Amino acid sequence: MELMDEIKRIAVITSGGDAPGMNAAIRSVVRSGINNGLEVFGFMRGYDGLINNDFKKLESHDVSHIIQTGGTILKTARSKEFRTKEGRKKAYANLKASKIEGLIVIGGDGSFAGATLLSKEHNFPVIGIPGTIDNDLYGTDYTIGYDTALNTVVQAVDKIRDTSSSHNRIFFVEVMGREAGFIALRSGIATGAEAILLPEVSGQLEKLKNLVSQRGNQKKSSLIIVAEGEREGNIFDIVKGLHADFPKLDMRVSILGHIQRGGSPSAYDRVTASRLGVAAVDALLNDQRSIMVGIRNNDIVHVPLKKTVKLNKSINRDLLEIVDVLV
Ligand code: F6P
Fold first, then answer.
1. Which of 21, 67, 76, 301 is the most buried (most CB within 10 A)?
2. Is the Cβ–Cβ distance between 269 and 24 less than 8 Å?
3. What is the atom index within ligand 1 of the atom nearest the CA of 108?
4. Looking at residue 40, what is its pLDDT?
5. Counting atoms of ligand 1 from 1, which one is nearest the CA of 133?
């Protein structure tokens, strides 16, 4: 008998940093599963819930009115225990005991690293749905939460711009993204930032110094976006260094932090999450065992989970060129 005839019970978790649109993805998995005659179970707090066997059956009404909400109704965690073989063994034993035959993991690359191992060590079908504000997953153009986070950054930076212009200050705004500059690059373009410092491009600090020195010590406002993963130092060191060279300039630091992770998901994130949830259930029903469902050129794609973990996504060079032209 083929696996697609066998699957009757599937589980879903959210793992790693929460991202707006995770709830829309859960809703999509649950409703698409039920529409395909499956029973769907939600485990709480990511892999920790799998290890501690903390789960509930999800019915269609359990996911009503969540498409518009941020966070995740299943809660999330970065599980230390799941990083161990023993932890993954416990998780598998619990899935097996409940006769669950496939798992859908909504999360980022850390979560997919665990998913790859679970699938490999126990020959268990696991499908990943990319969910992280960082957009740093190989194989997909977008991850759930990225669009909303970008819009949050843009709104915040527009407000900071008002103060920057009113006081003729140079504002340095730090945005999230872990070791990647996807949020920094797009938000920098969208806010008309005078410079964008991101980890994928070196020598920008030198460029920034030139820009500032061209203005001399004259008072003029500017907005500089700094990715949290910037390699030339953290935002405070960068500003301290510049201040030493240009003591008369009025500089301020603003760190946006976790406001970037919350809030109601954008229409784009809701639709993407809905598409990916359906695609993940379809993938399980079509006997896929260790893949991520992603979006490339607006089409759904399947990417081996291990590739998403091993390979790095490149920053969009066309966008970088735009920055140089527009600044
Ligand atoms: O991966 C999402 C993210 O928000 C990163 O941008 C950031 O570096 C990290 O998580 C922060 O993690 P935590 O919420 O655990 O402090």
1. 21
2. yes
3. 1
4. 98
5. 2
Q: How do beta strands 170-175 and 126-130 pair? A: unpaired
Q: Could you tell me the pTM of the whole model?
A: 0.96
User: The tokens of 99 are what?
Assistant: 């006769």
Show the tokens assigned to 17: 């940093």
Catalytic residue among 109, 134, 136, 269: 134
Q: Give ligand 1 pocket residues (Cβ under 6 A).
A: 17, 108, 132-134, 176-178, 228, 261
pLDDT of residue 213: 82
CATH of 4-145+265-310, one of 3.40.50.620, 1.20.1410.10, 3.40.50.2300, 3.40.50.450: 3.40.50.450
- Show the CA angle centred on residue 207, arms to residues 319 and 165, nearest 5°: 80
pLDDT tens digits, 137-169:
999 999 999 999 999 999 999 999 999 999 999
Q: Note if 134 is an active site residue.
A: yes
Q: Six-digit token pair at 38?
A: 């499956």
Rounded Cα distance between 32 and 129, Å, is: 14
The C-alpha atoms of residue 18 and residue 74 are separated, in whole angstroms, by 10
d(CA 300, ligand 1 centre) in Å? 26
Those residues with Cβ within 8 angstroms of residue 44's Cβ, 6 or more apart along the chain or in another chain: 54, 55, 56, 74, 75
- Residue spans of the domains in the chain: they are 4-145+265-310, 147-261
Instruction: Give the mean model confidence (pLDDT) for residues 96-108.
Output: 98
Paired tokens of 208: 């920034």
- Top CATH class of 147-261 equals alpha beta
Q: Please name the amino acid found at residue 213.
A: S
- What is d(CA 320, CA 299) in angstroms, rounded to the nearest whole number? 24
Residue type, 20: P
Which tokens hold the place of 195? 């410079």
